[in-house]
């Protein structure tokens, strides 16, 4: 039997002791006179009262301690602990363990709310939390900047008063152009329902996407200007110097004997550089002005064979797959395949190796793989970025154009290192023509 219960039982029995002792004495020595009986009654009453008080204290003291501990927990003071091993043994142990756990959880809660607060403050996105009556209950500094007002003027105001009600009523995720008091531009607006303390609420997150777009646009322009500058310089500098040389040759009184050769050589350089510049500009305009694909049913095997024949520098092996038809613009698809085959061959030049091209069906798509045995991929995430090239005479437009073509056809393209460790694999996928579905 647990110690506390033993105590209660023993104490209760002890309280009955004076009365029992008087009865035993009376049984042994016979009934005393009336006066003595009253004396014994007084003694029994006093004895029982003293014992009851002693018993009461023994029982109530640990219970008071327990009540004190529980009250402290209820008040949120988790630092108090009861002395273990007393009358209530396990109960105090459990309450101490409960206090430990509550203290730990409060610490974790405080740490995570601190972290949440810091994260919200560091976010570029504006975050707003509205309660079930659509009143603002939480916002971060980015939100405050967006609404351009002091926090105290914003808290407790309704979404309507803050001019955010229309955003909350719209779709849960939308891109829109909007003018907020603190900023205007293009924003990604998202909202979601929340539940807190059993009550509903709404979370609203607003991201300024205009800045990201502008930044990307700026980088693209920089890249374009760098490449354009490089290409134009590469061509104009020799043209200019050659023109200078020819002009000074012409200015001489007596032309040297081999002036014809010099002139022809000089004009060749000029023509060559001008042609390179034209080629570059035409490949650039292909990328910038890709027309929408004129799709029709294209037999894949025939198109791949025709394209592979165009590549003369290294052998191209065709591993024929099943008879597939894609829904594509023949010219654009051919251009995409030419670019992939050219990259595969150029990865092996100068040298040898074979390009393998095969195709398979994957659900509703035709998947075309172009594998090479070349140098492998350069360590860069920018292979598909327009004008990225690692080749001395490269334009960096090939892969960007393939991606544009693939995406305009609701397909895709990727470039991965081959599992064999040698060379790369370009994978192009396109939707199959509807009859083949
Ligand atoms: P370009 O061929 O003019 O360089 P691309 O856009 O076609 O432009 O290719 C970009 C870069 O991607 C290449 O310069 C090259 O570094 C890399 N690349 C593309 N295909 C392959 C491949 N099959 N193997 C290795 N690297 C490749």
From TrEMBL:
- List the subcellular locations: Membrane
* Pfam families with a match to the protein in the record: HATPase_c
EC identifiers of the protein: 2.7.13.3
Which controlled-vocabulary keywords does the entry list?
Kinase, Membrane, Phosphoprotein, Transferase, Transmembrane, Transmembrane helix
Q: Which InterPro entries match?
A: HAMP_dom (IPR003660), HATPase_C_sf (IPR036890), HATPase_dom (IPR003594), His_kinase_dom (IPR005467), PAS (IPR000014), PAS-like_dom_sf (IPR035965), Sig_transdc_His_kin-like_C (IPR004358)
Q: What is its main location?
A: membrane
Coiled coil spans: none
Annotated HAMP domain ranges read 57-107
What is the enzyme's class at the highest EC level? transferase
Regions crossing the membrane? 7-29, 35-54
Is Transmembrane there in the keyword field?
Answer: yes
Instruction: Describe the location of the PAS domain by residue ranges.
Output: 112-158
Reaction it catalyzes: ATP + protein L-histidine = ADP + protein N-phospho-L-histidine
Where the record annotates domain Histidine kinase, the positions are: 227-434
Q: Which SUPFAM superfamilies match?
A: ATPase domain of HSP90 chaperone/DNA topoisomerase II/histidine kinase, PYP-like sensor domain (PAS domain)
The UniProt record lists the keyword Phosphoprotein: yes
Q: What is this protein called?
A: histidine kinase
- Give the lineage: Bacteria, Pseudomonadati, Pseudomonadota, Gammaproteobacteria, Lysobacterales
